[in-house]
Amino acid sequence: MPKPTKGPRLGGGPAHERLLLGNLAAALFTHKSIKTTETKAKRLRPVAERLITFAKRGDLHARRRVLAVIGDKGVVHELFTEIAPLVAEREGGYTRITKLGFRKGDNAPMVQIELVLEPVNAKPKAKAETKKPKAAPVEDAPADETAPDATGSSSLEQEPVEAIVDEAPEAGSESKADATEDAPAEADVVELERAKESEVADEAADADAEVADDDSK
């Protein structure tokens, strides 16, 4: 058993409802706009949009599917040849419902359902760009400044090191300067030691001379 549709049932039974919606769809495709009750318009909208989707396909199988709902071949021909090309670029929303007020007598809400045949206006790309601004591209630094060497350090880090190496005095020159400064001090120490040794030797010679004089006496 097929699943019943939502909402109130139109007509006396399911077959009557299908015929009623088919006739409403045929009238809509013929006149492009009809006035009916709000309940019938809301039930007609999905049926009519489904038939328009078949018409946009344009093949023989789609034409037979539409003929199963609408028995008038003239209306089907108009749907496939006139209405389908006008909504070819539209991806949905082929109908529009406008409320008209209430009907006199039973106070039923009346609406006007019409086909939307206006050309589709594409959204300008400038608005999309203003809504989602692209991030500014990061400029790549020159390869000479940021490219790492084989040791893993960049050339920016090596330049100051080379400058320091150029400005620093050589190790050999420092040792030579220290040697020239230390050389006079070592010479003075040697001379002092020699003077002391000569004094000690003179004192020993004097002492031996005195001992010899005493022995001779």
TrEMBL record:
Gene Ontology cellular component list? ribosome
Q: Where is this region: Disordered?
A: 122-217
Write down the PROSITE patterns for this protein, in alphabetical order: RIBOSOMAL_L17
Does the record's keyword annotation contain Ribosomal protein?
A: yes
Q: Which domain of life is it from?
A: Bacteria
List the keywords (alphabetical): Ribonucleoprotein, Ribosomal protein
* Compositional bias annotation for Acidic residues: 180-190, 200-217
InterPro entries, per the entry: Ribosomal_bL17 (IPR000456), Ribosomal_bL17_CS (IPR047859), Ribosomal_bL17_sf (IPR036373)
A Pfam family that the UniProt record links to this protein = Ribosomal_L17
Q: Which PANTHER family match?
A: LARGE RIBOSOMAL SUBUNIT PROTEIN BL17M, RIBOSOMAL PROTEIN L17
**Family that this chain belongs to:** Belongs to the bacterial ribosomal protein bL17 family.
Q: Tell me the NCBIfam families matching this sequence.
A: L17
Assembly mode: Part of the 50S ribosomal subunit. Contacts protein L32.
Listed name of the protein: Large ribosomal subunit protein bL17
Record organism? Leifsonella bigeumensis
